[in-house]
UniProtKB/TrEMBL annotation:
Lineage: Bacteria, Pseudomonadati, Pseudomonadota, Betaproteobacteria, Burkholderiales
TM segment ranges: 15-36, 48-69
Species for this entry: Polynucleobacter cosmopolitanus
Pfam families: DUF4212
Name this polypeptide is given: Sodium symporter small subunit domain-containing protein
Record-annotated Sodium symporter small subunit domain positions: 8-81
Domain of life: Bacteria
Alphabetically ordered keywords of this record: Membrane, Transmembrane, Transmembrane helix
Statement: the UniProt record of this protein carries the keyword DNA-binding: no
């Protein structure tokens, strides 16, 4: 199968958004946990480090997934790869 310019653009955009979101995931998971003592301020009545570990990171993960699904649906429509029921 010969790849067209549209396929190349689709794949490049897919790799770029995946890299950006993986970077965000890394920051939420490791950087915030590593710097937890430096981030010791009150956030909604709890220390920020505790809040990020207990709730914030989970919320961030869900937001990453929702954004990725929305972005990929739009990208599929833009490049004509959408499933039949989505158009």
């Amino acid at each position: 199968m010969q790849l067209t310019e549209s396929h190349r653009q689709y794949w490049a955009k897919n790799l770029r958004i995946t890299a950006i979101l993986l970077g965000l995931w890394f920051v939420v998971t490791y950087v915030v946990a590593y710097m937890a003592r430096d981030l010791s301020f009150t956030f909604f009545g709890w220390p920020f480090s505790f809040w990020m570990g207990a709730q914030g990171s989970l919320i961030a993960y869900v937001l990453i997934i929702v954004y990725y699904a929305h972005y990929m649906n739009n990208l599929d429509k833009e490049h004509g790869c959408a499933e039949e029921g989505e158009e």
